[in-house]
Design goal:
The structure holds two protein chains of two kinds.
Chain A (H helix, E strand, L loop, with lengths): L2 H21 L1 H11 L3 H16 L4 H13 L4 E5 L2 E2 L8 H4 L9 E2 L6 E4 L2
Helix pairs in contact in A: 1-2, 1-3
Chain B lengths: L11 E2 L7 H10 L5 H17 L3 E3 L2 E2 L2 E3 L7 E11 L9 E9 L8 H13 L3 H7 L3 H11 L2
Parallel strand pairs in B: 1-5, 3-6, 4-6
Antiparallel strand pairs in B: 2-3, 5-6
Helix pairs in contact in B: 1-2
The chains are: A alpha+beta, B alpha/beta.
Chain lengths: 119, 150
């Protein structure tokens, strides 16, 4: 897997965790009630980690990431059943059908999001 | 949809070998059958989640969980470590039973929270820790889930 794609995936996962804690009442409730998580501390910790990971991105990739994520909640999306799960437009088979394609940074031609092929 | 439907016998390990929190998390991730890089990313995410607060909910049970792009559908696994492991659980007791839950950030059927809630509910049933300790095969574990009908 391309090292920069690995960082993008981790940033996206951290943001997903953050979004769950911040925006979804049910999720927050589960984390507080079942796991006794302090939401404010958790958000601060996640923000710091996200910032550290953004600093590890190469400038053009970071610029693209920030440009896309500013307008959309998710800048990295999986390719599932040949579709970009950001805009649901079909991705060429050469990209969508092979997890080894994760060795390269790929974008959706339609929406520009970074693509990640899952098994 | 019931809890049983999310578990597969291949994702059940009744003899976890790991002696540390990290080792056990890696073993649980291994039950999902992902590629090496995805396993590595998922491990980091689960560690991040554990750093926010232990997922050991007491009574010997932990539910490590997170959302991650490395899976394209909700995945679960169960592991047992009979002699227990220090997991910084809420009640400070050793953890013997581990339920791993991983869901993609985009989840059309939105099963993540219900499954998390059902496993927490399952864990709270008074006879569950004893029944989990007595299991001898993965099929018995699946049978217990079926019996509880959560």
């Amino acid at each position: 897997m391309h090292p920069q794609l690995e960082i993008l995936l981790q940033i996206q996962d951290l943001k997903s965790q953050r979004r769950d804690l911040l925006e979804v009442d049910d999720e927050r409730q589960v984390e507080v009630q079942e796991f006794h998580v302090n939401i404010d501390d958790a958000i601060r910790d996640l923000d710091q980690r996200i910032s550290e990971m953004l600093d590890q991105l190469e400038t053009p990739i970071r610029s693209r990431y920030e440009r896309i994520s500013a307008g959309r909640s998710r800048a990295v999306v999986p390719v599932i059943n040949g579709l970009c799960y950001g805009c649901f437009v079909a991705i060429p088979t050469a990209v969508s059908g092979d997890v080894r394609r994760n060795n390269q940074i790929r974008h959706c031609d339609n929406c520009g999001r970074f693509l990640y092929v899952t098994e | 949809m019931e809890l049983r439907e999310f578990f597969h016998r291949d994702a059940v390990n009744l003899e976890l070998a790991g002696e540390t929190k990290d080792d056990v998390l890696k073993e649980l991730i291994g039950l999902l059958g992902l590629d090496e890089k995805s396993e590595s990313i998922l491990f980091k995410m689960l560690k991040r989640r554990e750093n926010l607060g232990s997922t050991g909910i007491g009574r010997g049970i932990a539910i490590p969980h997170c959302r991650s792009l490395v899976v394209n559908r909700l995945r679960v696994a169960f592991g047992r470590k009979s002699k227990g492991l220090d997991f910084n659980a809420i009640d400070s007791s050793p953890v013997h039973y581990f339920f791993l839950i991983v869901a993609p950030p985009l989840e059309v059927s939105n099963q993540y929270l219900p499954v998390l809630g059902k496993i927490a509910q399952f864990a709270k049933e008074p006879d569950v820790p004893g029944r989990l300790q007595a299991l001898t095969t993965p099929d018995e574990f699946l049978g217990l889930l079926e019996e509880k009908a959560l």
